[in-house]
Amino acid sequence: MTKAIKQETMAMSGDEAIAYAVKQSDVDVVAAYPITPQTIIVEKFGEYVANGEVQTEFVCTESEHSALTACLAASATGARTFTASASAGLALMHEMLFVTSGCRAPVVMAIANRALSAPLNIHGDQSDSMAERDSGWVQIYVENSQEAYDSIIQAFKIAEDTNILLPVIVGLDGFTLSHSLENVKVLPDQTVLEFVGTRQLPNVLTHEGKEAPFRLDPEYPMTMGPVAFPNYYFEFKRQQDDAMKNALELIKEVNTEYAKISGRSYGNGLIDAYNLEDAEVAIVCVGSTAGTLKTIVDELRQEGLKVGLLRLRTFRPLPVEELRSALENVKVVGVMDKSMSFGGHGGAVFHEVRHALYDSEHRPQVVNYIYGLGGRDSSPIELRRVYEELFAILRIGRAKHIVNYLGLRE
Amino acid sequence: MSREKTWKEIAPAGVCPKSSMSFKTGDWKTFTPVRDLEKCTLCLQCVMFCPDGAIRWRPDMGKIEFELNFCKGCGICANECPTKAITMVLDKE
């Protein structure tokens, strides 16, 4: 690794760290609508606009549906675009999430993960973005505010790559990260500018038979996202799936490249493995809970117990190969889900991780823990008990329940 | 018709390989507008109202033309015509 650049340390919440990263990333258009716990992101960014610290066109829209539509339209002209949302706001964007990914518009969006109504709840869980799993967006979940800052900068580079052209969601746990003050190391403006670069556009063949940059430009008329009948729709969807597969490699490359300038990396960019090499039991989780779990792993390791942790950083595209090679020698795996798939026999992360392990030679036992819904706190004592239960399954040889509810009054 | 392309051969995002002029969007209509030249006063209301731009005013020739390849047979022209010069006729096929 080359020597990392000298960095300033700032006290920022996760939301503020994201706004700061967007400020440094030379974004052309931000369109957004406020919703807790995301509001600070666009509020803070609004200050940068008002103070003349950025050249960004800031569009205040009347809804989240319009916010994403404005971002999509701006992105289609070749602009770098950003928005942020959460919970009901993201749900209102649902239709446009698919239009954005279908139009291959590399919009970057921060989601301060929050529960969905009803009953109304403004606190953190991952129900909102997990419900948008199949909307064609890359999904990266962060562990802390530092990673939120770093991941936004990386997200522009991932989204806009001419082989990818996919919108990217960066998820940070509502309140736990969005509203908690942390020391965040920030790169110099110029370093970020050089890292994200200028948005490059691939050439495509237009209806006039001309090669033209892939953007809406009156000089080279082009139609994006029109009707595709049964004879072509499927082919366009296959292209999106292929771009997702390409993103797997790119996310790793961007993680490595970013480590060279910042000195920080997050596992291999896809998964963050912690003490997994010789682990007998392991937990898989997404987001900030990994911070607490790493401390517990350290404690249990000191007691001589072979425990490990895998933080799934990139949920879409799913790093199937990485999950398999990291977990196939573990005997019992507990997967943590901060969202519920009603009637689905476990949560989304559990489904995906278990599915990834199905073809392993030594298939581990995989159980699910649903936890933290609606912002319910999970204490270190509770999380430590999960490891104890995993060891109990290892001893007995089978699990009493495949799907478990952590911290719920029975 | 040319061979349909694979997903590797087409531009992303449904970028149209052809101009909209080459897509005959009027081939599935049920009713066809028929104009009575006796009643028509060339007021051009139908040209304005046609949602598909399928009725063209040709000032050089002093007449209007129906471009039936793009007419979907909605009947708005017939409905709006002040002299009732347009009738919608059921296609025989």
Describe this structure in words.
The complex is a heterodimer of chains A (410) and B (93). With 410 residues, chain A is of the alpha/beta class. Chain A has helices spanning 14-24, 39-50, 64-76, 87-102, 127-130, 145-160, 189-196, 233-262, 289-302, 320-327, 348-357, 380-396; strands at residues 8-12, 29-32, 57-60, 81-85, 108-113, 138-141, 168-173, 182-186, 203-205, 211-213, 271-274, 281-285, 307-312, 314-316, 332-337, 365-370, 403-405. Chain A folds into two domains: 8-201 and 237-262, Thiamin diphosphate (ThDP)-binding fold, Pyr/PP domains (Rossmann fold, 3-Layer(aba) Sandwich); 271-405, Rossmann fold. The longest helix of chain A is centred in the middle third of the chain and has 30 residues, at 233-262. With 93 residues, chain B is α+β, with helices and mostly antiparallel strands. Chain B has a domain at 25-88: Alpha-Beta Plaits (2-Layer Sandwich). Chain B contains two helices and four strands, in the order βαββαβ. A two-stranded antiparallel ribbon of chain B has the order 1-4. Chains A and B meet through helix 8 of A and loops of B.
Quick overview:
The complex is a heterodimer of chains A (410) and B (93). Chain A has helices spanning 14-24, 39-50, 64-76, 87-102, 127-130, 145-160, 189-196, 233-262, 289-302, 320-327, 348-357, 380-396; strands at residues 8-12, 29-32, 57-60, 81-85, 108-113, 138-141, 168-173, 182-186, 203-205, 211-213, 271-274, 281-285, 307-312, 314-316, 332-337, 365-370, 403-405.
Using brief descriptors, characterize the structure shown.
heterodimer, A: 410 residues, alpha/beta, Rossmann fold, 2 domains, 7-stranded mixed sheet, 12 helices, 17 strands, B: 93 residues, alpha+beta, Alpha-Beta Plaits, two-stranded antiparallel ribbon, 2 helices, 4 strands
